[in-house]
Amino acid sequence: MFDTIISFETIEHVPNDKEFLTKICKLLKPGGTLVLSTPFGQGRGKPCGSPFHYHQLTEHEFLTLFTGKNELFENIEIFYQQGVSIENVKRPKVRYPLGITVCKKALPYTE
Fold this sequence. Notes:
By secondary structure, the protein is an alpha+beta fold. It contains 2 helices and 5 strands. The chain has one domain (2-105): Vaccinia Virus protein VP39 (Rossmann fold, 3-Layer(aba) Sandwich), CATH 3.40.50. It has helices spanning 17-27, 59-66, and strands spanning 2-8, 28-39, 73-82, 85-87, 98-105. The radius of gyration is 14 Å and the shape is globular. GO terms for molecular function: methyltransferase activity. This is Methyltransferase domain-containing protein.
């Protein structure tokens, strides 16, 4: 069990992102922290620029992995990255190619 798991630009390399997050959650200690980033793209089932990616999620698809009816994580913070700049509020007319989430394993988590 881990206090923190950092997963930068890996979720797009797995076919089932929800299963990936469930497995990460099982590896975290209660209240453990996940830091995860992914490049934004055209979405599930759409072509993407890398032959090694199963998909590149849209911003909306990425956000819905962690918001709404999410029972795995809480205290969810979303950030946007452009170059070396990481911001928690999107600026108008700025394209952010990467999304980052920082969240805690929800308590109590049951399998």
